[in-house]
Amino acid sequence: MPELPEVETMRRGIQPHLQNQRILGFDLREHRLRWPIPESLRRQLPGCVIRKVRRRAKYLLIDTDQGSLLLHMGMSGSLRILPNRTPAMAHDHWDLQLASGQCLRFRDPRRFGATLWIDSPGNSHPLLDKLGPEPLSDEFHAGQLFEKSRGRKVAIKNFIMNSRIVVGVGNIYASESLFMAGIHPSRQAQRISKKRYAALTQAIKEVLQKAIEQGGTTLRDFQQQDGQPGYFAQQLKVYGRDGKACPVCGQAIRKQVIGQRSSYYCAACQR
DNA sequence: CCGGACGCCTGTCGGC
DNA sequence: TGCCGACAGGCGTCCG
């Protein structure tokens, strides 16, 4: 489910509730996620004081004075801030009990998400080692994207969804960015000029930034920490709109499977 | 190294 | 109404 804007929306939503909070308990109900949740967290987390909540790619890092919780939402993960002891529903896998009387609750029906522990402040994790630049940072720019694309025959949509190239661009925002830049999603990465990479870089930054401002995209079940949806779905130009009119030229939007993922584009506007 | 396919899970939706 | 396959916002791993 969540791409970078949704994860960033979660970070902003939970951060004020977590900052400087002492952790009282960790109620673990289901440890079978993508990787098993360490049972040791039951004793390691109580007593920790949360410093801040960071995001790297689609990961959230809850930094404490003892170490960091590393979270990933997979396809269906979500976080809520609730009063302690709110009855748990199916797929509510754990609660982090806070001294404030609230808890952070992790829900993930498909269990593709992750909850891991980095056991010392300042340490990293192998999952974070080979990630490319943050798309909204200055390290992500046209020159960098162009250089990495030389000799790459892969479809441009797969290329920008590759987290070694740039992080945070998932299936929705890949289609939207390519539409904005006028690039056909199955074009080979090596067959795109530097000038067009400049347009694509700008499009990725703009789409992600706008989506963050709207609180992310709610297609079916994405919720912010307070239960509110994100409102960027109203601004999607092509994603999920096959058969409908292109907002620029009116031609019907097409759907094509690229790299096992549905892709949406306008054959007239994108080449 | 690169590119493509697979599998991990549950829920929902459309068609018959 | 019920069943069944297709599909869903991610990504590490494996194979050629």
Descriptive notes:
This protein has 7 helices and 10 strands. The strands form 3 sheets. It has a 4-stranded antiparallel beta sheet with strand order 1-6-7-5. Strands 2-3-4-8 form a 4-stranded antiparallel beta sheet, covered by helices on one side. A two-stranded antiparallel ribbon has the order 9-10. The chain has helices at residues 4-18, 41-44, 126-129, 142-149, 156-160, 171-181, 194-213, and strands spanning 23-28, 50-56, 59-64, 68-72, 78-83, 92-98, 102-107, 114-118, 254-258, 261-265. It has 271 residues and is α+β, with helices and mostly antiparallel strands. 25% of the residues lie in helices and 21% in strands. It is elongated, with a radius of gyration of 20 Å. The chain folds into 2 domains: 4-129, N-terminal domain of MutM-like DNA repair proteins; 142-265, Helicase, Ruva Protein, domain 3, CATH 1.10.8. It binds a DNA duplex (16 and 16 nucleotides) through residues 1-3, 6, 32, 34, 58, 72-76, 91, 108-113, 127, 151-154, 158, 161, 163, 170-173, 217, 219-222, 239, 259-262.
Sequence of strands across the biggest β-sheet: 1-6-7-5
Separation, N- and C-terminal Cα atoms: 28 Å
Strand content: 15-25%
CATH class of the largest domain: Alpha Beta
Number of domains: 2
Defining key terms:
271 residues; Helicase, Ruva Protein, domain 3; four-stranded antiparallel sheet; 2 domains; N-terminal domain of MutM-like DNA repair proteins; DNA-binding; 7 helices
Write the layout of secondary structure elements.
Elements: H1 4-18, E1 23-28, H2 41-44, E2 50-56, E3 59-64, E4 68-72, E5 78-83, E6 92-98, E7 102-107, E8 114-118, H3 126-129, H4 142-149, H5 156-160, H6 171-181, H7 194-213, E9 254-258, E10 261-265
Antiparallel strand pairs: 1-6, 2-3, 3-4, 4-8, 5-7, 6-7, 9-10
The structure holds a DNA duplex (16 and 16 nucleotides).
